[in-house]
Amino acid sequence: MNVYEPSSDFFPDSLHRFWGDVTQQTSTDGLWKVLLCHLTHMGFPMVNYLHRSFESFDAAQMDLRSTMPAAWIKMAEGRAGPGRARFPMHDVPFRLHPFLHGVEFLNDYRDARFCTPRFISDVQIAGNHGFRSGVVIPLRSGLSNERASILIGGGQKREDFEDAMQRHGWTLHTAAMQFHLSYLALLRREKVAELGLTDRQLELLMLSAQGMATKEVAYKWGVTEQAVSKMMRNIIARFDVNTKIGVIAKAVKLDLISQTELDASMRPGN
Q: What is the DSSP string of 124-172?
């Protein structure tokens, strides 16, 4: 049985530094810069992070961060469309395991289900712009309607990249997941700040999630029902949804209301 004494056997120094830098960030922009700094230092200058929040089976809000060549990004964004896009279930972010990516590895997965003509075209175009080898790491959070992936690599030849994966693969995977979870937390915080809700509006969200009717809220606050209804209409407009149920669902997603609190409010007797 092997005994591992130094922590560096499991947690390389670079990962320790990365975690320390991540915890100090207060914005998604700052977090992205930290990730790029560490990956570039490791020899991986090309990074593409894509987060998708699904509103239905195949329609999603998209958040893209990338250092890929501008021409490739323009092509990808044009194909995806502004903000929302349609993504088939066999698309890359639905895969559960990392896989090697780029023209250097294209022949390895030509028979894979996700290797569509569009995918092959994307890989070849990326190769023409200097991205020859990389790894795609699918990322997950606790929310079933979210998908994300990160593509890390550069212009290395196949053998050089495979050697890098032998040395840094575990570190990259761990750092990518830490980045992803931290990014989601900061992204939600930024979206909440953009909404600019008052304490009273936040309270109305909580009371509505607890099943309290407009009339009951008005009585509790000592105001008219019209005043409560007007406040809810304002919240609905800020959330860019159409109904009170839509507001509550989005509030849960943004951590304004916890799923535990919402579940408790729906129990019989509440």
A: HHHHHTT--EEEEEEE--S-TTEEEEEEEEES--HHHHHHHHHHHHHHH
Q: Cα separation of 45 and 170, whole Å?
A: 18
Stated pTM of the model: 0.73
Domains of the chain listed by start with CATH number: 11-192 (3.30.450.80), 196-265 (1.10.10.10)
- Report whether 137 contacts 149 (CB < 8 A): yes
pLDDT digits (tens, 9 = 90+) for 238-269: 988 888 888 888 888 777 776 655 655 554 44
- Tokens representing 134 are 């990389």
For 159-176, write each residue's pLDDT tens digit: 999 998 888 888 888 999
Q: Minimal CA–CA distance to 150: which of 64, 69, 78? A: 64
Higher-confidence position of 4 and 186: 186
Cα–Cα nearest to 134, from 118, 154, 107, 114: 154
According to DSSP, the β-strands at 46-54 and 146-154 are antiparallel
Do 48 and 66 form a contact (C-beta atoms < 8 A)? yes
C-beta atoms surrounding 168 within 10 Å: 20
Q: How far apart are CA 141 and CA 1, in angstroms?
A: 34
HSE-up of residue 36 (Cα within 13 Å, Cβ side): 15
> What gap in Å lies between CA 195 and CA 178, rounded to an integer?
26
